[in-house]
Amino acid sequence: MRIGELARRSGVSERALRYYEAQGLLTPERRPSGYRVYGEADVAAVRRIRILLAAGLNTAQILEILPCIVDEDGWLTPDCPELVDALRQQRNRIDEAIGELETTRANLDTIIGADQRVR
Length: 119
Hints:
A hairpin with a 5-residue loop joins strand 1 (29-30) and strand 2.
């Protein structure tokens, strides 16, 4: 299938698909004319990429772990033991960021509350 068909079937823009290719996440076959040709496996690969992006991973991290991710009945499962540790580290970074954002929100709430007391 060509890029337009993959975009339609995956719900991802052609621009995003070209970006995934530039990042090494997709490797379509190239025709002599330069057209990209994708297979059925690429539809599933785009789905995995989108889920991993939504989980807070960047494309460099996804490139590293994508070969170790198995799609079983719609659930992504790590297939390499070392991947679980890396994903836990990522989750810990997210937890730290959440903590920092909660502190920031509390500070803003204090400032907003002070503003309302002045009025």
